[in-house]
UniProtKB/TrEMBL annotation:
<dbReference type="InterPro" id="IPR042221">
    <property type="entry name" value="Leu/Phe-tRNA_Trfase_N"/>
</dbReference>
<keyword id="KW-0012">Acyltransferase</keyword>
<dbReference type="InterPro" id="IPR042203">
    <property type="entry name" value="Leu/Phe-tRNA_Trfase_C"/>
</dbReference>
<dbReference type="InterPro" id="IPR004616">
    <property type="entry name" value="Leu/Phe-tRNA_Trfase"/>
</dbReference>
<comment type="function">
    <text>Functions in the N-end rule pathway of protein degradation where it conjugates Leu, Phe and, less efficiently, Met from aminoacyl-tRNAs to the N-termini of proteins containing an N-terminal arginine or lysine.</text>
</comment>
<dbReference type="GO" id="GO:0008914">
    <property type="term" value="F:leucyl-tRNA--protein transferase activity"/>
</dbReference>
<protein>
    <recommendedName>
        <fullName>Leucyl/phenylalanyl-tRNA--protein transferase</fullName>
        <ecNumber>2.3.2.6</ecNumber>
    </recommendedName>
</protein>
<dbReference type="GO" id="GO:0030163">
    <property type="term" value="P:protein catabolic process"/>
</dbReference>
<keyword id="KW-0808">Transferase</keyword>
<keyword id="KW-0963">Cytoplasm</keyword>
<dbReference type="GO" id="GO:0005737">
    <property type="term" value="C:cytoplasm"/>
</dbReference>
<dbReference type="InterPro" id="IPR016181">
    <property type="entry name" value="Acyl_CoA_acyltransferase"/>
</dbReference>
<dbReference type="Pfam" id="PF03588">
    <property type="entry name" value="Leu_Phe_trans"/>
</dbReference>
<comment type="similarity">
    <text>Belongs to the L/F-transferase family.</text>
</comment>
């Protein structure tokens, strides 16, 4: 981790222009996961990603993967799934369980970056009304998919999503876009490009353009009543 700032207690982040090219976007190490530190980070487009026992690593990749709410793409097959309406929706009812599900090993990969410290930190932000979860439930009420992240201004900073049945995470994303569109949200931060998000309409923009977008949207306020969904996924479509 040579060449990056090691944060001391109360020390501010360096300019994002000092982030490394390789690994892409690594800006600083150390500090803590207090609400104050996390909010200061997200307001500048910086997020933590690390695996214990490493120190906290802070990132701001360039380019940045984003999904503008009005550019959400819902494939024909997903529209059919939504119209069947067989899955239920909820908001902020099982935040910790969503995080725990996102932390489960996938495709035989051991370990996770969502450790106990991350779970505590984001759950605290959830209790403060800043972190939110979208939950997808089957007809018995079992959690089968979802996502979580941070809502600041008119931007939602997506952290992770999961599916236990096909398309459940995509349905959660459609539900999130539904909420943001109603409340005046404009952007979902996807952090790093992925084929999964690209199929939903995500694209990359430069770090500078991302930061310019944040500057115009981060101080806006979404009505707390925005965080509500119809009972079933069939009502997400017009």
């Amino acid at each position: 981790m040579a060449g990056i700032v090691r944060l001391g207690h109360g020390q501010d982040f360096p300019p994002t222009s000092e982030a490394l090219d390789y690994p892409n976007g690594l800006l600083a190490a150390g500090g803590d996961l207090s609400p104050e530190r996390l909010l200061a980070a997200y307001r500048r487009g910086i997020f933590p990603w690390y695996e214990a026992p490493q120190p906290v690593l802070w990132w701001t990749p360039d380019p940045r993967s984003v999904l503008f709410v009005d550019e959400l793409h819902i494939a024909r097959s997903l529209r059919k799934t939504l119209r069947r309406g067989g899955l239920q929706l909820a908001v902020d009812q099982r935040f910790e369980k969503v995080m725990q599900a996102c932390a489960e090993p996938r495709d035989g990969v051991e370990g996770t970056w969502i450790g106990a410290d991350m779970l505590r930190a984001y759950t605290q932000l959830h209790y403060l009304g800043i972190a939110h979860s979208i939950e997808v439930l089957d007809h018995d009420g079992a959690l089968v998919g979802g996502l979580y992240g941070i809502s600041l201004g008119r931007v939602f900073f997506g952290e992770s999503m999961f599916s236990r049945i096909p398309s459940a995470s995509r349905i959660a994303l459609v539900a999130l876009a539904y909420i943001l569109r109603r409340g005046g949200g404009v952007l979902i931060d996807c952090q790093v490009e992925s084929a999964h998000m690209n199929t939903m309409g995500a694209r990359t923009i430069s770090r500078l353009d991302f930061e310019k977008t944040l500057a115009h949207t981060i101080d806006a306020t979404l009505n707390p009543a925005t965080w509500a969904l119809p009972a079933t996924c069939g009502d997400l479509l017009p």
